[in-house]
Amino acid sequence: MRKTHIVGNWKMNQNLAEINSFASAVLDMNDISCEAWIAPQAIHISKLKELIKTIKVGAQNCSNQNSGAYTGELSPESLKDLGAHFVIIGHSERRAIFNEADTLLNEKVLKALENGLKAILCVGETLEERESGEFKTVLKNQLLNGLKGISSADQENILIAYEPVWAIGTGKVATPEQAQEVHAFLRNELKSVEALEASRTPILYGGSVKPDNIQGLLENTDIDGALVGGASLKGESFKDLCQLSK
Ligand code: PGA
Q1: Which residues line ligand 1 (CB under 6 A)?
Q2: Residues 79-90: b if buried by 16+ CB within 10 A, e if exposed
Q3: Which atom of ligand 1 is nearest to the CA of 93?
């Protein structure tokens, strides 16, 4: 009932030559049953859409405003105009490097939804938070604060990504058991969000996902896909991830 989503987060990577070779590698990608999405740098959204028709393209961030004097910001309305399908909100790099806090992230979620974009709200604990034993409180706050004010009409447009910060770009993937435990916890917390049906809301896992560990993760009932950084950059690897995902 919940479709598997494989979402590539290219971060600030991939020049045009690399995008072209990625596109050639995935050209023959067919017979996949998952949703295959990529978030390139926003300046490459149109190019990627033009090159690859089988993949839905989105952004890695957006503003909490549609227009105005916000130099350097990325308007969700303009992203929609450009044909973006979704936007990633609250990635741990945005939270840690750009100091984005829950209130701002909630405004971004609402603005993205208002513009007809799907929103992937990311939550995740640091190693310190995990070891302190407080990580479930951290995750619950990020989740519930990020979803404030959404309406039941948004059900189809909300996805959650659980990305433990200690697993991102480190090669240290959470074990399927660790990931499943948190996903079940998050799904249970989603029950308190009146606008959503927890059982219909996709929860993706992110953090060092690769073709050789994706199946073990996806076998778990509450893991509905993956948000993938490094292993989404090469076309062959992204294709493998999608083909291994049922
Ligand atoms: P990674 O990144 O797959 O390279 O660990 C995941 C992410 O940051 O979304």
Answers
A1: 9, 163, 168-169, 206-209, 227-231
A2: bbeeebbbbbbb
A3: 8
